[in-house]
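Cross-check.
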Amino acid sequence: MPLPLVNALLAGLLEFIPNIGPVLSIVPPALLALLDAPGKSLAVIVVYLLIQQFESLVLVPVIMAQEVSLLPVFTILAVVVFASFLVF
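Predicted model, tokenized:
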């Protein structure tokens, strides 16, 4: 994968944009991988999605539970409930 530090920095900066940032951070590395080898592009997308899901569903609730003294299940439920308000 070319430019790993640039891609990591871009992903970290776009992480600050809620909901859209992680999706946008997939585009540049996927395009670079597509230029290198078409099969790598799919692998990059799968790895990014797995990392994002792990962060969203495991890492963030555990950290939030330690910081605010809530069980991780409550933070996950809060995210699901409030996200359902935004679904049209």
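Helices lie at 4-14, 21-24, 27-36, 38-68, 72-86. The chain is about 80% helix and 0% strand. Passed to J.P. for a second look.
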